[in-house]
Amino acid sequence: MRQVIAFFLSLIVAVSALAPVAAGAASTWSARSEDTADVSADGPVEADTPQALGALQARADGIRQRASSATSDAQLLELDTLSRQAATEADSLMTLSLQPMLARTHAQLDVLGAPPAAGAGGETLAVARQRVALANQQARLDAEIEQAGRIKDGLSNVNAQIARLLHEHLKDQLALRTGSIISADFWRPVVRPDEPDYRRLRAFARQIRAQPGSIWQPHHRLAAAVLLLIAVGCATIGTRVLQRIAASICLRRLPEGRLRRSALAMSTVLIAVGTTIGALQLVGVALASQTALSPSLQSFVNGLFRHTVTCALIAALGEALLCTRHPSWRLPAIADPLARALRPFPPILAGLLLFSGTLEQIDLAVDTSVPLTIFTRGIVALIVALTIGASLMRANRVRTALAAAGESAEARTTLAGLIHAAVSLAVAGTLIALLCGYVSVARFITYEMVWFHLVLCTLYLLTRLSHDACESIFCPAHRSGKAIGQLLGLKDFHLEQIATVLSGLCRSMLIVAAVVALLTGGLGTTPAGLFASIVEVLGGGRLRALNIVPEHLVNAALTCGVGLYLVRSVRGWFDTQLLPKTAMSDGMRASLLTLFANIGYLLVALQTLSVLGVRWHNLAWIVSALSVGIGFGLQEIVKNFISGLILLAERPVKVGDMISLAGIEGDIRRINVRATEIQLADKSTVIVPNSQLIAQNVRNVTMGNTSQGVVTIALTFSLDVDPEQAQDILFNAYADHPSILEHPVPCVVFSQLTADGITLTVTGYVKSPRIAAEIKSQLLFTLLKCLRAANISLSNPRALVVQGTRAGDFFSLDGNRRKPPQRAA
């Protein structure tokens, strides 16, 4: 019942919303107001007459002349509508008439063929005349198409100029300080309305009342009643029926999983918005065959149509995301009591925005005085701010109650907390601005809050739908995934990688689109425009004299923040979703993540400088100074930075490798831009500059053979020991140890025979070089026990006294003569 009342309310104020759309197909634009006769009195031109382009050129010149002298938003919006209509007619004239005629002329010339060469026999006089006539017609059509293109481009430039004028006008209004909402000046337009405003409003009300009455003519009353009833049924009963059908299809046709929930939420939004547009189209058809709208009424209903669709989208998003009827199908992770508490606010907010949009469109269409416009904006900002504030307070009460009961209201994240805090500050800022007299600033903040929520909710819904769709389509357990795998010969992990990559691409494109939508503004000006307007009041002229542009500062801050968030988000997506589904090692994954983060941060820095207005051709002196600094004090830093890039690209060592460098042996834990972190066996960390890893000899233990380590022990026995018995003991000790691999087989080598004894070397392999030292220690203990049990001793060389030496000389076993130190006298 609430939806029926809301639709009838919107139908009353938007009953003429789409009359121009349908009237363009069923009637002409012959009825124009007297104040625009110099621009559009000619109406649509005939496409088959040469006068058509002249009439369009005259209308374009008139629009351009009036735009240069317009002083109000109503006049600019009216001229914008007229210029768009003229541009559409020029495009239709060019594409639907001139270009087909040119194509037919080309075809006729092709039929005639090329003119005969001189001396090759002439052609008949009739054919020659026809060829000349077709060539002249072709030249004339080319010139007319070129002229139509120039007219269209000129009108596009006029639209861009009008948009800039509107933007500048809005910035000026934001900087304007008026009376506070608690002052008498603010309420004076209601208590004592101005006579001109009163007359204009009464005239506009008569136009609105006269327009619906035209459909109740005796010859058109039945058809109009049927169309209006169908429109009402489409917006009420049709919406519910279609949503139930969509829920049934999602439940029975889609595969099990999260895709059902996201598809149901999206279908709810699309059906609600689609039925609203369809209902308005039917109302427009009902009004189309009668009286055409005046320019002021036309601009009013066009703006109201956009507001109606936007409000329908807000209500539909609230219903789809809260989903109080089926809590188990709810997409956001919020508790059911919190969802039920927030359920009334989206339709209430949509209704208030429709009401506020209607008031502002009336102000623009009637061109009311500044006090009445300020009053309207103040009331709108106050109502919307109080509504959003009430929803925040109610949500906080529910969260407090759930927390007291030991339950969680929602899955809290840093981003969600920042959004909640920003909205709370925006509501407080709106109320403060209204009390201080900055009504236009308050109106801007409220509209931007709604726009931000609209974009973010749409982004959330689309990202969830794209992710769930990719996961379901390429899931190896579903029929679609099996069919794709069999068709393309892909394995299961290939399908998972494809799904992850496609999901990431869709998410990235949606985030970029959302950022563009947020920064360019939707229901008001941009945040940079607001900041520039405020700074202009506080001394923006002095800042501009120092070549400091406030808009550039805000845009640079937003670009830097958004860029850093995107780099971190994409890096986290690589780390947690894409790379784990590949066959890359941990070291390679860490290297790729580091390389991506460095490149991403560099691009963000360059883009931020570009937004600030920095031009690289103006930085020659900075580059010169840097070259001198690099030559003296920064050469080591630059050398290490370049070495770090080489390490990440060439990968002679990577994260996770076990290396030995200048007596330092350990595992690489991180490769930074300047230095590399090496963790030693005692868990301490050594910071090694990257240039040393490039310029010095580095032993990479795990590079050639990442899965095996070598345990080698060399023992020297006396000459009276049986070497075969010693060989068996060594081999059995290695073979019986559980950590020694069976392949390759351990081997014992008779490596040396000297006067001191025989040397046997035993070698075995373990699964990792990092455990080689521990296994070697265990084997030494085992071998010592086995040799003692077999009564086999190691060689014990002794010092030898050689004849012919002098007293005081000492000979070691290696035969080198050394003199003892002399005593002091």
From TrEMBL:
Keywords: Cell membrane, Membrane, Signal, Transmembrane, Transmembrane helix
Membrane topology classification: Multi-pass membrane protein
PANTHER family: MINICONDUCTANCE MECHANOSENSITIVE CHANNEL MSCM, POTASSIUM CHANNEL RELATED
The DUF3772 domain, residue ranges: 146-207
Transmembrane segments: 222-242, 263-284, 374-393, 414-435, 441-462, 510-532, 590-613, 619-638
Name the record gives this protein: DUF3772 domain-containing protein
Annotated Mechanosensitive ion channel MscS domain residues: 637-702
Family the entry assigns: Belongs to the MscS (TC 1.A.23) family.
Principal subcellular localization: membrane
Phylogenetic placement of the source organism: Bacteria, Pseudomonadati, Pseudomonadota, Betaproteobacteria, Burkholderiales
Subcellular location per the Swiss-Prot or TrEMBL entry: Cell membrane
Occurrences of domain Mechanosensitive ion channel MscS C-terminal (ranges): 711-793
